[in-house]
Design brief:
With 454 residues, this protein is an alpha/beta fold. 37% of the residues lie in helices and 17% in strands. The strands form four sheets. A seven-stranded mixed sheet has the order 4-12-11-8-7-5-6, with helices on both faces. Strands 13, 14, 15, 17 and 18 form a five-stranded antiparallel sheet that branches. The chain has a four-stranded mixed sheet with strand order 1-2-3-16. Bound molecules: pyridoxal-5'-phosphate.
């Protein structure tokens, strides 16, 4: 990532972009980071492509917020029409927020039957944890060791990936996430559940008690860890034993990304209520007590939500109340309505499954030739690829991962790297990513890998 202005590290930028970089560094706070050794200046987007001022086309293999594609015409149409008509809040009777809520809740198991809107994932995480604490009377929250859950005081305090200068909350305990590359798949699930148990016991002994186990259902910042399917349900069973709740952070995996509408479905083995999922036929698994939605929900319009059971949120709603000025406003709901329609009409979860499988196959083929590619992990269109030292195939190699990311950027293909060792290629394009996009990505990656070997 390029932080601030360094013209020497970006010698190929146009004079206009160089000037923009300079001005940017003079007004934006030092928190802001740019991706890549050479920043990308984009002026428009379409589908899974971004374009710079010179009209160059970048393949977007990274952005999950525009899930149905950049600048989707239906979002533009619905949002423009709504903005020209009415934009208020949830304290008046309006049709759109009710009918959207009915449709969205129908995609969840029926027990999850109430929704509260906010504007960002962080706000929704914050509310989910407040709800869990209120409902259980406990304070403790268990998160994974490299989790990211947001920017507010509470959600940053649940985000160890922000590093040592970001203090975790006093009632927060971390556990190592499953590691698909290094764990024994036969025991990984039970071992994760055992770590949850130890952490819950610790919270109990300290008199804090367990309010919730909060996990991103695809463990994005822990390096994309979808396997073994079911480990979150096993962990949730332990949480319930201790009187705690399972909060599924669906901000990254939600809305079809992982091949099902919700990422937790991979772990509960259910699709909605009745259709058994493919992963765990017949498993009597718990469902999340609370699900938190965000990012792709409005395809770029700020909208997020907390979904839970009526009885769980009842007392909080009556005794604490929650009003979010912009949360669930008609314009954001119009964007969310467009997203939900397109996800359904184009069966984007199904498309994510097939396209993701093709990408995973192509990546596995490349790993046969290029030994710096280690394990390929995939759930729908969320893929993580370990970059390792070819001489020590289990050793994470963040420097080579960064070289791959920047080499692809030089070929106008955009990905990133994540994970506790920053060595996992994060491949997470808009869900409309097509077959030609897949070919271009794999060809560019092969070219990049060959140039790094040369
Ligand atoms: C898993 C997860 N949860 C929560 C958040 C916070 O969402 P927001 O940036 O919309 O506040 C993020 C953002 O990256 C996230 O990845």
């Amino acid at each position: 990532m390029a932080n601030g202005f360094d013209p020497d590290s970006s010698p190929d930028l146009s004079p206009e972009a160089t000037d923009l970089l300079r001005r940017r560094s003079q007004v934006l706070s030092s928190s802001y980071r740019l991706f890549y050794s050479e920043p990308v200046d984009v002026v428009c987007g379409q589908g899974s492509h971004l374009f710079d001022a010179a009209g160059n086309d970048y393949l977007d293999v990274y952005n999950n917020v525009p899930g149905i594609g950049h600048s989707h015409p239906r979002v533009t149409e619905y949002v423009s029409a709504q903005l020209a008509t009415l934009n208020t809040h949830t304290r008046y009777l309006t049709e759109a927020v009710v009918s959207y809520s009915e449709d969205l809740l129908a995609t969840f198991p029926t027990a999850l039957d109430r929704i509260t809107y906010a504007c960002s994932g962080s706000e929704a995480i914050d509310l989910a944890v407040r709800l869990a604490r209120f409902a259980t009377g406990h304070r403790g929250v268990i998160v994974t060791a490299n989790a990211y859950h947001g920017t507010t005081e509470l959600s940053a305090g649940l985000s160890p990936s922000l590093g040592e200068n970001n203090p975790l909350g006093p009632d927060v305990v971390t556990v190592e996430a499953p590691d698909g590359f290094r764990d024994d798949p036969a025991t990984a699930s039970a071992e994760f559940a055992a770590r949850i148990r130890t952490a819950a016991e610790d919270l109990e002994e300290r008199g804090i008690g367990l309010a919730a186990v909060l996990v991103d259902s695809v463990l994005s910042s822990d390096g994309v860890q979808p396997e073994p399917a079911g480990f979150l349900a096993e962990a949730a069973t332990v949480a319930h034993e201790f009187g705690g709740l399972w909060i599924a952070d669906e901000v990254q995996p939600g809305f079809g990304r992982t091949g099902t509408m919700w990422g937790f479905e991979r772990h509960t083995g259910t699709r909605g209520d009745t259709q058994p999922g493919p992963e765990l036929p017949g498993l009597e698994a718990p469902i999340p007590d609370i699900a938190v939605l965000g990012k792709p929900m409005g395809n770029g319009m700020p909208i997020s939500a907390v979904v839970t059971r009526a009885e769980l949120g009842e007392e909080f709603g009556r005794r604490v109340r929650y009003f979010n000025t912009f949360g669930g406003n008609p314009v954001s709901i119009a964007a969310a309505r467009a997203v939900l329609e397109v996800v359904r009409e184009e069966d984007l979860p199904g498309h994510a499954s097939t396209t993701g499988a093709a990408l995973a196959q192509g990546l596995s083929d490349l790993a046969q030739d290029f030994f710096l590619l280690g394990q390929v992990r995939q759930a729908g269109l969320f893929l993580g690829v370990e970059v390792v030292d070819p001489e020590a195939p289990r050793a994470a190699d963040p420097a080579r991962a960064s070289a791959v990311v920047n080499g692809l950027r030089d070929r106008r293909v955009l990905i990133s790297a994540s994970g506790p060792h920053a060595n996992v290629l994060k491949i997470r394009p808009p869900l409309v990513f097509g077959a030609a996009d897949t070919d271009r990505f794999l060809t560019s990656l092969a070219d990049t890998l060959a140039s790094l070997r040369a």
